Amino acid sequence: MKLSLAIAALALAVPTAMSAQDSTAVSNAERSSTFSSGSSNVAPFTQESKRFNDWAISVGAGVPMIQSADLTSIKNGNGKNLFGYSVYASIDKAITHAFGINIQYDRGETRQGWFNAKDLAPTNAPAFQQVAGRTQYDAISVLGDLNFSNLLRRVDNKSPFRWALHGYAGVGTLAYRAYQKDASSPYQRLMTEIKPFRLNSLFGQAGAGLKYKINNRLNVEGRIMYVVTTDDEFDGGGRQYSDINKREDQISDNFINATLGLSLQLGKHESHLMWHDPLQELYYKLDVLAERNQDIEVCKKGDVDNDGVCDDWDRQLDTPAGARVDGAGVALDADLDGVIDLYDKCVTVPGPAENNGCPMTPAPTPGGVVDEVVTNLEGIEFDFNSDRILSSNTPILNNAVGYINKSDGSVYTVIGATDTKGSDEYNQKLSERRANSVKNYLIQNGVNASKLNAVGRGEKDLKYPECDPAEKCEEWKNRANRRVYFEVK
Question: Residue 175 in contact with residue 194, Cβ under 8 Å?
């Protein structure tokens, strides 16, 4: 089969390729084929069989600035622009191509107030501006890592990508020592100390990072994180300075941390799970085959009946030539009458094989004479669970009108019947409705009502008794049991 068949196979291969970890074991010398058929190449998923690296370590450094506190790091009325420092290290685990978990350690120092706490207080400044704070902190947190670029990446984008936007959010424990210095003393005083792993030391942080892929092992990332300390004394101002800031929306000492870092991918594989585009390998193989004008082997065991379904999966290996098949290679039979569509002359209406899949509906005889089949109303059949007269029934019924009117003194009993699907009680009522439906049609078209009776026999009067239960027979036999016929007295 030529390349066109390989393109068609792409639709079947994509769900397998899009999974987070391929369950097919591969070596460094040869990658597994996503086009391989059958189950011979599929092995249970293990850590040894995965195709992508999913661990990494990250380190970085940055500048934290307190944004909402009594003493801030930003020149906004509560302090000057004072820059601290921060460093972080994390162990990163990718769960899928778009989500991971990071365990991160942060250490840093924020500086806030109207002068650097390591400098002398400005003596010419107002008293409320002669305050400085310095906070040293350590934090351990668990962060969720959402890769927006992989999550939103179009599957038809064939270009490689080196930029990725990540979102982070998580919680952890925060320990810190907050110092204060003012004009009254040249020394820094320890105002607040919170030790780690205390119930009141919980904090949260969230933000975004933009990564650039330097190579398959190394990434560089710029992050901006917003840290919620949940503590009004983190800035070192202490309770005695809580009235410095009169804004009610600044009740906790949160800060912004801008960092620049590196990530090192760990593992023996060529690419990392969060960078790998699962379609690239497929596009590459197809492009190479197109350039070389080569065939691709889709069915290792062949396709003996040439129906487009590999023998590995084909449930009907002797499909007639030209027959349409389903995904399992079985010839289609739209009306489920046992005659495949290739040979069925009435594809949407069930009928016996001896009539080429069409219902046994007799035609009126020449001259308006009604034969025995019409007299007995053979062929008056109904849809499942219905008493509606079908258009295919009207020629027989119209001829029966003339026959009954010409008869002398005979009384005709219209008998309704059903198949064996459903309960006895329900089928009895359904058969009565069918009989009355035909009776009313004949009366409306000119038959004297005194010549007609209507009775229902439910499922007790089967034309094909072997269809009990109904599952034992083809649909056309069950349809023949859903009928109305005449008895003459």
Answer: yes
Whats the size of the chain, residue-wise?
Answer: 489
Q: Token pair of 376, please?
A: 């007995």
- SS3 label, residue 292: helix
Per-residue pLDDT tens over the stretch 69-104: 888 898 876 778 999 999 999 999 999 888 999 999
Other C-beta atoms closer than 10 Å to the C-beta of 356 total 12
Q: Which residues contact 423 (CB under 8 A, 6 or more apart)?
A: none
Cα atoms in the Cβ-side hemisphere of radius 13 Å centred on 302: 3
The gap between the terminal CA atoms of the chain, to the nearest Å, is: 69
Q: Which fold has domain 353-488?
A: 60s Ribosomal Protein L30; Chain: A; (3.30.1330)
- Beta strand 412-416 with 483-488: parallel, antiparallel or unpaired? antiparallel
Amino acid (one-letter) located at 239: R
The Cβ of residue 15 has, within 10 Å, a number of other Cβ atoms equal to 8
87 versus 230: which is more confidently predicted? Answer: 87
Place of tokens 């007790």: 460
Q: What are the residue ranges spanned by the domains of the chain?
A: 3-50+276-292, 55-266, 353-488
CA distance 276 to 153: 12
The single-letter code of the amino acid at 380 is I
> CA neighbours within 13 Å on the CB side: how many for 460?
11
pLDDT at 256: 95
Q: What pTM was computed for the model?
A: 0.51
Residue appearing with tokens 């850590």: 47
Counting Cβ atoms within 10 Å, is residue 234 exposed (0-12), middle (13-18) or buried (19+)? buried
411-455: pLDDT as tens digits: 888 899 999 888 889 989 999 999 999 989 888 888 888 888 899
Reported CATH class of domain 55-266: mainly beta
**Which secondary structure element, helix H or strand E, spans residue 403, and what is its range?**
helix 394-406
If 0-12 CB within 10 Å is exposed, 13-18 middle and 19+ buried, where does residue 145 land? buried
